[in-house]
Amino acid sequence: MGIRDEDYANALEHQRMHMQALQNAGTIARNPIIEQPYGTFKMLTENDLQNEAMKAPISALVDMWLARWQGEWVSETYFQEDDFWRIALVRLTGANKLEKHNLATQMSPVYRIIE
């Protein structure tokens, strides 16, 4: 038993219409917010590819993190407004260079470099 072609086509059309309605309502901005396993951030765009955090090698990002925060825990809220560190966080997390913990005392997770 599987999904019928007609049902699949209807679901795709429903999704397309929903996305179009959101765009028309202005809720999808140039740089929308998305939920990632490592936090809630603005989606990466083509412009972000030109950011220094995307051009730098991972080892340089690790060194910059250590220079800035050493081995301290850093709240996710810091990264949400700073494009360089937002992109660096995405790259470092993707390279398994950061550990993340959710605290019972605050809504935002904290991150620390894995040395």
Brief write-up:
With 115 residues, the protein is an alpha+beta fold. It has helices at 5-25, 52-55, 58-69, 83-94, and strands at residues 33-36, 39-42, 74-75, 98-101, 110-113.
Overview of the structural elements:
This protein has 115 residues and is α+β, with helices and mostly antiparallel strands. It folds into two domains: 1-30; 31-113, no CATH class. 43% of the residues lie in helices and 16% in strands. It is built from four helices and five strands; from the N terminus they run αββααβαββ. The chain has helices at residues 5-25, 52-55, 58-69, 83-94, and strands at residues 33-36, 39-42, 74-75, 98-101, 110-113. A three-stranded antiparallel β-sheet has the order 3-5-4. Strand 1 and strand 2 (39-42) form a beta hairpin. It starts with a helix and ends with a strand. The relative contact order is 0.14. The model has no long low-confidence stretch (mean pLDDT 81).
How are the SSEs placed, and which strands pair?
Blueprint lengths: L4 H21 L7 E4 L2 E4 L9 H4 L2 H12 L4 E2 L7 H12 L3 E4 L8 E4 L2
What keyword list fits this structure?
single chain; 115 residues; alpha+beta; 2 domains; three-stranded antiparallel sheet; two-stranded antiparallel sheet; 4 helices; elongated
Number of helices: 4
* Overall strand count: 5
Give the N-terminus to C-terminus distance in angstroms: 50 Å
What is the overall silhouette?
elongated
Query: H/E element string?
Result: HEEHHEHEE
Relative strand content? 15-25%
Tally of separate domains: 2
Strand order of the largest sheet: 3-5-4
